[in-house]
Amino acid sequence: MNEKVDTVRRLGLRTGQPGLSGKLLALTILFVMLAEVLIYVPSIANFRLNWLNDRLAAAHTAALVLDAAPSGMVPEELARQILGSIGAHAVAMKMGQQRRMLAATQMSPQIHREIDMRDVRWFNAIRGAFHALSDKDDCILLVIGPAPRGGEFIEIVIDNAPLQKAMFRFSWNILFLSLIISAITAALVYFALHYMFVRPMRRITENITQFRGDPENPARVLIASRRVDEIGMIERELAAMQCDLASLLNQKSRLAALGLAVSKINHDLRNMLASAQLLSDQLSGLPDPRVQHFAPKLMRALERAIVFCQSTLSYGRAQEQPPDRKAVAFDELVGEVRETLGLAGESA
Description:
Blueprint: H1 2-11, H2 20-68, H3 76-86, E1 88-95, E2 98-104, E3 113-116, H4 122-134, E4 140-145, E5 153-159, H5 160-213, H6 230-284, H7 289-315, H8 330-340
Parallel strand pairs: 3-4
Antiparallel strand pairs: 1-2, 1-5, 4-5
């Protein structure tokens, strides 16, 4: 539990805030609902047009019956029944220059909105649908459509309340269906994206935080999957980078340990050389000519060794002194080498 909390703190995340999964779920639901809204608008407009066309189709049949009867020969009761079956207050038809009232109730209501179904554009259909939903129940509509038997147009006067009620019922059905579809679609999209993207990214994130805690541990190196997409490439490149970094850190650790060991050796060696230098000082005081001849050379060699050990201890690594260029007597140098090698008694 503490490890998870530390991981969250290292990542800079705050507890209680939605992570990548929560944001993905919220965006999925938002976009699915937005798609449902975009589907609903033309659907409700088309439902209104179909409902009005059904009323016009029923009015066509009624117009054929009423127009076939001689003028004034349609019984009033039959006319009311025909109007009731259509759900209209009046039916009129224009043929040529004559506009004929085929049937009507005793009191003609006041027209509040006129709808022409002969040429309906999509924008007007959508606007009319929202008008139908927002109009009052007592709103009266005059619907104009093509007339049968060569007529110019047919008119019906209907109430907006039945249309509005049918549209609300359709809207609730669409809403209920949209919620079901949104829930199923959001769940499928969420789990698909979570499995394909969120889980691998979370695995990579957790591995990075674990590797950061112990970068020299080869067990913390990411094991790349067999994916061939961009996430698989990220896993392989990250694993290669972690391997290189772990190898470099291990190499530096070994070099540091080696440097520490060299420093300890140089420290002990310096102490031993200091003791040897004290002995060489005592040898230089002996009256033996050979000792007096070799003692300065021995002391210079010991001094160079002590300086080299001191530089190693000071800088943590062996570093040669820069060359000191100067003119020397070549004969003396050759003689010194011969004496060091024990060749002084031999002829040149």
